[in-house]
Amino acid sequence: MFKGKDIVSIRDLREEEMEKIFEIARDMIPIAKGEKREEYLRGYVLANLFFEPSTRTRMSFEAAMDRLGGKVLGFSNPSATSISKGETLADTIRMFDAYSDVIVIRHPLEGAARLAADFAEHPVINAGDGAGQHPTQTLLDIFTIVQEFGHVDGLKITLMGDLRYGRTVHSLAIALSYLDADVHLLSPRTLKMPKHIIREMKREPEIHERLEDVIEDTDVFYVTRIQKERFPDPTEYMKVAGSYSITKEHVKKMKDRAIIMHPLPRVNEIDPEVDYTPHARYFKQAFYGVPIRMAILALVLGVIE
Amino acid sequence: MFKGKDIVSIRDLREEEMEKIFEIARDMIPIAKGEKREEYLRGYVLANLFFEPSTRTRMSFEAAMDRLGGKVLGFSNPSATSISKGETLADTIRMFDAYSDVIVIRHPLEGAARLAADFAEHPVINAGDGAGQHPTQTLLDIFTIVQEFGHVDGLKITLMGDLRYGRTVHSLAIALSYLDADVHLLSPRTLKMPKHIIREMKREPEIHERLEDVIEDTDVFYVTRIQKERFPDPTEYMKVAGSYSITKEHVKKMKDRAIIMHPLPRVNEIDPEVDYTPHARYFKQAFYGVPIRMAILALVLGVIE
Amino acid sequence: MFKGKDIVSIRDLREEEMEKIFEIARDMIPIAKGEKREEYLRGYVLANLFFEPSTRTRMSFEAAMDRLGGKVLGFSNPSATSISKGETLADTIRMFDAYSDVIVIRHPLEGAARLAADFAEHPVINAGDGAGQHPTQTLLDIFTIVQEFGHVDGLKITLMGDLRYGRTVHSLAIALSYLDADVHLLSPRTLKMPKHIIREMKREPEIHERLEDVIEDTDVFYVTRIQKERFPDPTEYMKVAGSYSITKEHVKKMKDRAIIMHPLPRVNEIDPEVDYTPHARYFKQAFYGVPIRMAILALVLGVIE
């Protein structure tokens, strides 16, 4: 059911397909840690096409191939490629399609991954396009929650920080609503979740402006980075950033089993002291990027059914 | 006869050596496509040294090693290397010679690959030096023609576009003339094939300035990119570029079995609509870079005789 | 005794541990040359984190993994990573720690490697931090001497050139003194060995300003690059650089078995004519970077005991 499939949007996956991915990802964990060796992807080549900088996503796809015995080619910086000579995206994709078995693409423009999927014969995986989709991030985010709680439905999940520009929170909000989570949104007024995203959610989320309103009964805090560049006035940024960051004081008020997630990189949104509390899950979440991507690659390449 | 051989210029290869490369390349096609696995180069390391940007050539060498189980190291951008500290090319080559089994070099200066071959103990493959040679490109171009027609001799082959600065067309023109093709040259006056190249050809080629003169009886159109930077006046560029590009209208006048090639990347020289006609061969040509380079690597490393 | 060990400073290694590394490195030489294949590190992933340009060190770690069947991920240029988004070094390290089995780090700031070792669960190898340590370079330097003379003690070893800023000579001077070499220092006044380094040496080294004073009875000349940027006045640089470089005339006055080493890249410190004399050992020294790093990787990963 997965062989040859493009993963462009989280909407391309039905709930049972997500569960299949999670099931395989669970088996991949010891391989991702290097505790077990299975070269499922020996002889396969992945084209890792990053038209925009990214470390975590790019490196975890690479680690996923490496751990499964596959090879990776591509670029992290389009300026050293013939794209700088004026080549169209369609031609670049066709070239890599001829040199590899699966294409991963990160691009600054929304729709780029869909276009790539249209031109490539091999499966294409969207690793983030513009303010659009980043489905493997959404999958690893949900996987982190499922690994922790066993389910998503009924959990109170607060997405917080920059909900306007933060790419990862858009598809996550929609996906969580369809998995029957109780989604709450917490952001400064200027960085609110776009209305068209809220309209796509299954249920209207509750909207907050103060962390205090949700701190005591949230199960999952999903914190995102507020970028300085979004604010014309630096003092405005400081004020806002401070109000949506998590400190050790906040942690004391949380539920015992509450977890804190973050797509990383973080800047000041989570105090480093929080790292050592039992609530921090962002590093584990980052690690889960590897088994999730291993599972997806093995499935779309058809080596696991 | 190939083990340890440097491939610096297409003139380093006799006709029977070319045929040997093509024979091996044919066997490599299913491996290049990932349909068959043969790790001929397991344990071997290639140094891919790109002192100048290139995607297709660099990536197809990398794909060739990957598919055959080998490893690749090197750089795509000399600014992140100690070349920026003032190291001589000879010393850089000696270093990579100590770390690898075969060196691929692309360099902006003519003669760089020959110098590299002089200093390296391992075989060196020229991946383009200045306005000089790019023998693996020439081989894959000829291979594309041979795969299509079974032979080169007697075919009417029109090289068109920028014949003055276009690196690939120089060695191709010479090689085709020695393979007894009927070579025609079509370019704006300011971008004519240099006289010293014509002198090296076995037979004097016919020279044209209008596509209409050759469109009806050419077997192979070899189109090249006309770079805007070559023209001081942008309107001059627009006029010239337009006259040497191929549209769907042109295709209608072509022979049924005529094929269109291009070393890629292209900008406006071939209308995207032409991609879907049975004449387009440039994407297949780009793919053939992989089996051709697999064959060359396996031969110079001595794993296939 | 090595499994899981961080190699941050040469002081982390006792003399018998160095000897163990040399013993394994000797066995690795045929594998490093590609004459023998042993995939000790198949399935292992190395994170090669270069926050500062380096070719030789980065590439030799990569070649070491490649030759032993392992995989490498990482970066050579932090600008294409999320470090540019303001991520802390600790967070970057944690991410790569989750994606790999061993971390190699080169960083412009002294202490960066120690910090990395504190945050990573997997072993960390310092590939140079600021003006601080570069232990694998020190090991390959000593290995080169031992391979040549069978021992270090009692040899007259002259470190020459830029002893002030040259990172490699600091830890080398200390290590050689503890191995009972007769260390001599030769540099312009403005580029003298720092006093705190001399204080760390087991025995006070002899200090010279003229190559003539040591040329006749030195066993090992260890030449370093004098960087133009260190001098406000270019003529001053020319004068100084010229006085601490080695020409064919100097070579004539050397002992028959004297060897010349250099960490490379060199600029003008050694005349290329010297390369062809039996005294040149700098290219062999560069090659030894591969078996030394293979030995260290195999030991800290616990695949060889």
What does it look like?
- Three copies of one chain form a homotrimer.
- Chain A is α/β, with parallel strands linked by helices and 305 residues long.
- Chain A has ten helices and nine strands.
- In chain A, the strands form two sheets. Chain A has a five-stranded parallel β-sheet with strand order 7-6-5-8-9. Chain A has a four-stranded parallel β-sheet with strand order 2-1-3-4, sandwiched between helices.
- In chain A, β1 (45-50), α2 (56-67) and β2 (71-75) form a beta-alpha-beta unit.
- The relative contact order of chain A is 0.16.
- The mean pLDDT of chain A is 94.
- Chains in contact: A-B, A-C, B-C.
- The B-C interface holds B 42-45, 71, 73-75, 77, 79-88, 90-92, 94-96, 98-101 and C 34, 37, 39, 53-56, 59-60, 62-63, 66-67, 69, 76-77, 225, 264-267, 272, 283, 286-287, 290.
Please specify the SSE layout and strand pairing.
3 copies of one chain form a homotrimer.
Chain A: H1 15-32, E1 45-50, H2 56-67, E2 71-75, H3 89-99, E3 102-107, H4 112-119, E4 124-129, H5 135-149, E5 156-160, H6 167-178, E6 182-186, H7 195-200, E7 206-208, E8 220-223, H8 234-243, H9 248-253, E9 259-261, H10 282-300
Parallel strand pairs in A: 1-2, 1-3, 3-4, 5-6, 5-8, 6-7, 8-9
Helix pairs in contact in A: 1-10, 2-10, 3-4, 5-6, 5-10
